[in-house]
Amino acid sequence: MIALIMGAGISLVFTMATMPIFIRLLTKKQYGQVVRDDGPTSHAIKSGTPTMGGVIIVLAVILSYFLTHGILTLMGRATSGVTASGLLALLLFAGMGLVGFLDDFIKIAKKRSLGLRAWEKIVLQAAVGIGFAVLALNFPNQNGLTPASTAISFVRDTNIDLAFAGPLAGLILFVLWSNLIVTGTTNGVNLTDGLDGLAAGASIMVFGAYTLIGIWQNNQACGLPGSGNVCYTVRDPMDLALLGAILCGALIGFLWWNAKPAKIFMGDTGSLAIGGAVAAFAILSRTELLLVVLAGLFVMIALSVIIQVGFFKLSGGKRVFKMAPLQHHFELSGWAEENVVVRFWILGGLFVAAGMGIFYSEWVVGL
184-208 burial string, b = 16+ CB within 10 Å, else e? Predict the structure, then answer.
């Protein structure tokens, strides 16, 4: 437990201390947000606010992870040290953050609201996602457990195995399944990141849930005395819990500067990195389908865009919402930005609570 507190503390302090320096640097270079013309008119005042705050979030998480492990080793309290699961989660997190950074930098350099071309972003995200998926099926531990599994999971692996037609078909199907999850989470977080503090606050809750899940899976791991029939076959759950705590610390530090009126935005650097981390947790903790509930706020917001675009095309120009994503519909309905953010945080918290309830209930029922 000391590792979780240490990791979260390091990332929190690093983010809190370095973010104002980064804000001054971006302001000096005039690296500000370009607000879309088709967005809510109330957002025009946000034009020029420094963006790419996700750079500090990514640096804080990576630094805190390795520094925490290093300190624990020096203290003689290290158990497993750096793990394959932790490194793979960081790979997806940082890889998606790099794609977002390229997108943000192009927007800033060209002073326009669109960065990478759609096909460029798809190719880069696919490259990171495929690399993660292939590597995740390797690196078995002493018990033969790999970080990921070809079995589709809910709160643990189910009997639905993508390798039903052989290892090669299983690898291909898992790559497709994994990238579907990654695409969904990165887009969900990216679409949620439209109001001051909304995406950061909601993400803290999700990562907090995965921290608790990692602790529980570690304490109920198969092979431990008294583990019984409802144990968890997850590789490196405690290291994933550490990473979840570190992400919470970094995002709390960022939220201090991102709360309305935001002094800095996370940009695509932050939203894509966070989305990648959420996907990594779902895949590596074997809770892929549970993610739909835990990250229900992101799912709801992404669905609002799908519904809006689909209905617009099918109806010949009619709309379901005043504007999509969903948070902007409520802004245009007269809600103050702070009201939208807090009420969506409440919804996000309810989704997380429901997901944790399902996770725990499955264990209780299985006893």
Answer: bbbbbbbbbbbbbbbbbbbbbbbbb
Q: Which of 278, 259, 348, 250 is nearest to 54 (CA)?
A: 250
What sign results for the dihedral spanned by CA atoms 298, 55, 99, 108? Answer: positive
pTM for the whole structure = 0.94
CA 170/CA 162 separation, integer angstroms = 5
User: Is residue 221 classed as helix, strand or coil in its secondary structure?
Assistant: strand
Tracing tokens 């420094």 back to the chain, one arrives at 50
Over the stretch 55-76, which tens digit does the pLDDT of each residue have?
999 999 999 999 999 999 888 7
The residue with tokens 């993660």 is 132
**What amino acid occupies position 284?**
L
Q: The dihedral of CA 235, 281, 81, 133: what is its sign?
A: positive
Whole-angstrom distance, CA of residue 191 vs CA of residue 323: 12
pLDDT digits (tens, 9 = 90+) for 228-257: 668 899 999 999 999 999 999 999 999 999
